[in-house]
UniProtKB/TrEMBL annotation:
Cofactor(s) this protein cannot do without: Mg(2+)
E.C. number(s) listed in UniProt: 2.7.7.65
PROSITE patterns per the UniProt record, alphabetical: GGDEF (PS50887)
Lineage: Bacteria, Pseudomonadati, Pseudomonadota, Gammaproteobacteria, Alteromonadales
Catalyzed reactions: 2 GTP = 3',3'-c-di-GMP + 2 diphosphate
Pfam families linked: GGDEF (PF00990), MASE6 (PF20966)
CDD domains given in the database record: GGDEF (cd01949)
Record-annotated GGDEF domain positions: 225-354
Name of this protein: diguanylate cyclase
Top-level taxon in the UniProt lineage: Bacteria
Top EC class of this enzyme: transferase
Annotated signal peptide: none
InterPro entries: Diguanylate_Cyclase (IPR050469), GGDEF_dom (IPR000160), MASE6 (IPR048435), Nucleotide_cyclase (IPR029787), Rev_trsase/Diguanyl_cyclase (IPR043128)
SMART domains cross-referenced by the UniProt entry: GGDEF
Organism: Pseudidiomarina aquimaris
Amino acid sequence: MNSRTQSNLSNTPQDPLYRRVQFLWALLWVMLITFLILGAFNYALNDIRWIAHMHWTTSILSVVLIYWHWQRPDQTFYVSWAVVIVCALVLAAYVVVMEGRDYSLIWLTIYPPVVFFLLGRRWGYILSVLVAGGGLIYAGNSAPSWHPAEFTGNSLLNIVLALAALITMLRHIERTRSEAFHYLHEHSQRLEYIAVTDPLTGLVNRTKLDHALYRGLQSARQEQKALSVIILDIDHFKKVNDTYGHQVGDRILIQLAQVLRSNTRGSDTLGRWGGEEFLLIAESCSRPQAKVLAEKIRHAVAAFIFYDDIRITVSLGVASFQPDDDESSLMRRADKALYAAKANGRNCTITEAELTQLAPN
C-alpha cells in the first residue's frame, strides 16, 4: 500500500489531521492566487517589477508545495513547516519593504493562528514569539529612519484584509474545535451504548440491568411505590442449539427479544440477563400486575412461530419489592420462583407468593 492510499484511508473527519490538511490546502491555494494577482498588479500598474517577481516566486513556491503534498500526502508535517517558513519570509519582506507604512505591521497578527494550527501548540508558541517579536524589534530599531506617512486607502485596505484573514482563520479553528467536540460526544455516546447493550439481541446487558435495578429499588424506597422483577428462561433451549445449531439459536434469541419488546410497557427495563435468561424490571407494578404481564409474555412467546417454524416456550419467575429488600434478596426470590416454574412442568409463571403453595420436590 503506497503513501497516498494510506493517507486517504485515514483522511476522514475523525482523523486528527483532517482539518489541518484542509486548512493547509486552503492556505496554499489562497497564497497561489493572491500572489499571482498582486504580482500582476505591481508589474502592470505600479511598475515595481522586483516586488512582482517576489510575489510570483511565492506563487511558484505555493505550486511546488501543493504538488509535493498531492504526491506525498503522508508528509503533511514537512509541508506545513515549509508553508510556515514561506509565510514568515513573505511577512518579513513585506514589513521591510513597506517600512511601516500603510499599517503593514498588522499582517504580523495573522502569523500566530497559521503556525499554531499547522504545527501545534509548542512550535506555534516558539515561532509566533520569534517572528512577531523579530518584526517588532526591527520596527522599533528602524522607525527613527522611516518617513512619516498619512493614513491612506491602502492603510484601510491592509487593516480590512488582515482582519478578514484573521476572522476567517479563527472561524475555521472554532469550527474545527466544535466538530471535534461533536465527534467526541457522539463517540462517547456510542461507547456508552456498546457498554450497556447486548450485542446479539440489542437489549440492555447485565451491567445496565444491575444499574437499573439499583436505581429502581432506590426510587421504590423513597417514593414508596411498587416494583417487580420478572425473570424468564427459554425451556429446553440447549436442545434447540443441539438440534438446529447455535446460529439458529442466536436467531431465536433475536426474535424472542423482539417479541418481549412488543409485549412490555414503555416504562419497563428489559434486558438479557445471561445466556437464554432475560430480566424485566417493572416499576410501579404490583405483584398481581406483574403476574398478568408475565402471563401475557408467556402466551405471546408460545404463540409466535420462530425461525424455521420452531416453537418455544418460556418459564417465568416473579418477585416484588419488599421494604427490607436489596438487589440480591429480590433477585434471589425471583430465581427461586423461576426454578419452581421449571420444576412445575415449564411453560408457566410462578410468583414468590406461590412458592409456599407448591409441594416440595
